[in-house]
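Student: Hello, beginner here. Can you help me understand the protein record under this note? Any guidance would be welcome.
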Amino acid sequence: MSLSHPPSDYKFGTNAIHAGYTPDAHTGALITPISLSTTFLQESPGKFYPGGFEYARTANPTRNAFEDCIAALEHANWGAAFSSGLAATSTIIQTLEAGDEVLSIDDVYGGTRRYFTTIAAKFGITFKFIDFADIEAVEAAINENTKIIWAESPTNPTLKMVDIAAISEVAKRNNLVFVVDNTFMSPYFQNPMDHGADLVVHSVTKFINGHSDVVMGIIVGNDEELRQKIKYLQNSVGSIPSPFDSWLALRGVKTLHLRMRQHEENAKAVVAALQSSDKVESVIYPGLEDYKYHDLAVKQMNGFGGMVTFFLKGGIDQARQFLETVELFACAESLGGVESLVDHPAIMTHASVPVEERAKLGISDSLIRLSVGIEDTDDLIRDIQNALDAVTL
């Protein structure tokens, strides 16, 4: 059994289960095996077996199957998997040279900003952070040293959105590489390649794997020159995932379409519960009609996802009351797992962002981020309501 047509002929759920692997011709194994071998036999020096494998850092059958699967889901030609999302991010930056510049959205993930400003900057690369809502301002910020435009959409944690098609046009006019971090939406709800992105990056740790048991990242793209650069770095630097992690993530992605639907269904119910509370100042969610970027969300996404941000009335004391009272929503970093998580960005995921920058971005002490899981909807609503009842103003 094998797919007789290219991935483009099949729908998402079919590709999530089948893309990237053909059952083993010798054993008939239906599920991708975990290939643990670090080296591969050569028929003669430089003459490889049909799979073309030489050394496991360079390529591995299990990792290849995962890379091909995600590439198919993101409508890309190739994929390159890494040991974490930040390893994927750093690999893209390693395609640059001293003196080059990256133009990044201001509300970028705290770990990405930390890497940009405290590590990559030491090697002579400049980073400029601006609001991508103003397309003219983005183009005006470009200079002769700019080589990459880096976006997240929606952003972490304030859920800003980027008009991917519009920024893509800016990148093309200026011969720049346009990177989109699609972690929050997953390939199920958004495909940046369809809107002109050159590279798409994911923290596989989050929704793609979906079970909070793998740390992993991936880059996908279409351009052959970029593929060669990324694959060279993947092999030369060696920030690769293990075969077992690749297998776990490949197993996780098989249910991505089912999980994302439930994440969204639960998120919508949680949003409604938050909006009905007099303890809540405001709620940010792409599915809300009064969400600033709602029309853009409808245009470039296939759904609204499972991430919710809201502002409690009060400050840090009220936020702590909420976070210390929830039971099903685990107070923990990360997101995208089957279990619901609650995060206080100012103290947790974005603590490395300078206070003054957090203030500009709206990451206040009253901001709370929810990664809504796939538990029973009624139980999640009861958990939220109990925690809100414990908040004293």
Notes: The radius of gyration is 21 Å. The first helix runs from residue 12 to 18.
